[in-house]
Amino acid sequence: MSLDRIINEAISPWMREDGPDSDIVLSTRIRLARNLKSYTFPTLISNEVALQIIHMFESTFSGQMLNHFGNLEMLKMEDMQPIERRVLIEKHLISPDLAENSQIGACLLSENEQISIMINEEDHVRIQCLFPGFQLSEALDVANHVDDYLEQHVEYAFDEKRGYLTSCPTNVGTGLRASVMMHLPALVLTQQMNRIVPAINQLGLVVRGIYGEGSEALGNIFQVSNQITLGKSEQDIVEDLKSVVQQLVQQERSAREYLVKTWGIQLEDKVYRSYGILSHSRLIESGEAANCLSYVRLGIDLGYIENLSRNILTELMVLMQPGILQQYTGGPLHPEERDFRRAALIRERLLLEQNKDK
């Protein structure tokens, strides 16, 4: 299989777009948790009832057009191989919890993969909208539009005092989780993240790794999201997060200016060493690859490297994941085989990028 085909099938169309502040904010996500009024919540639901819910959503929404996002397609976890489910996780289209619910989980996915409606995860419905760059208000508007569209056909579990009722008490109220994915290498290199993270936590927000709760901050990529859903409006939650993200963007830019002035040739050397490792390695683990990609992306943003697109980080962070590597090589791979395939894919992708204008 050619690399062009791998990229075209593995990278969601929205990932190729730039958004506001996309030198630092890679993506924005809005997620709304909802439950159906007349059904037992998923934590206690029987398989029979869960399948009834999937059938209802499939018959009502599958194939329906959602504006410019394209048609909705029903993906049932039970019809997918474990590697295929892992690919969806690595593309941030479904959660690990949904993938584990292989007998009763499903997802309505828009054609451009920007909208994902997870069914029978922790809640009956999880509406997710993904946008490139820093677009919290825009993503919220779309999520609310999808929410209103669903509510024309289903009745949600809602309480006048408590708001939307969810399986986990931390989601009760708006049911809203707003998050941004940020690339913060300069704040890491200047060791400022150690004091920034606790300060953010005190504001009712949380900083996690690339795949959310319990994951590592691979490649200096952090996910910043709200913790509080009850007692605040959706707009207040988004505005609070927006304010913190704007400060982080400014701090990261200031830290980058500081590094350029004080590190000088050492910073440039770090960037080009990382570029050299990615361009020539024959074996590379995911952690080392992520760190090298981070510094190459920093070099692109600072103007050290001019023949690569900054979207290379987003693409390769997806393409190098174990599930996608195994999906496109046709079967399971041992760790060393994955490291070999990962190194080869990265080398070929960089070469393809370098030669695209020739």
From TrEMBL:
A motif (RDXXRA motif of the pArg binding pocket involved in allosteric regulation) lies at residues 338-343. GO terms for molecular function: protein arginine kinase activity. The keyword Zinc does not apply. The keyword Signal does not apply. PROSITE patterns: PHOSPHAGEN_KINASE, PHOSPHAGEN_KINASE_C. Its EC number is 2.7.14.1. It is an enzyme of class 2 (transferase). It comes from the Bacteria. Catalyzes the specific phosphorylation of arginine residues in a large number of proteins. Is part of the bacterial stress response system. Protein arginine phosphorylation has a physiologically important role and is involved in the regulation of many critical cellular processes, such as protein homeostasis, motility, competence, and stringent and stress responses, by regulating gene expression and protein activity. Belongs to the ATP:guanido phosphotransferase family. This is Protein-arginine kinase.
